[in-house]
Amino acid sequence: MRILILKVVSVLSLLGLAVLSFVLSKISWEEIESHLARVPYRCPLKALTGFQCALCGMTHSWLALLKGNIHRAFHFNPLGPLLLVLFCLICFFIIMGNASSIEKFSPTHEHKRISALIAVCGLSLFMVARNIFKF
Asked: Alpha-carbon distance 59 to 115, whole Å?
């Protein structure tokens, strides 16, 4: 049952990205920018320290990527396109995988902790590099 739920969620996620990409193709970038400028949310780290966090610009990056502007997507946040591609690949492999292969690679509690530690360290290093080299 868990495998079926994962597959359904993956299919719906990819379909949602396709629909969002289609809708965004009909909207000009200036309209998107004006709507995003009215969003009251700001990064707390940037507000307190003036430094960009690892995820600053991720929404703009994903929107630019879904609009087909890869150069602008990398400009907003270099991780944006990479994480979106990784997300799509994970969904694709879940959809295409059979139940035994998905169960075989189901992470243990220790693997989850190690993965979280690697993700936090990687994002922290990216944040430091991003603020030193200004990309």
From this structure: 24
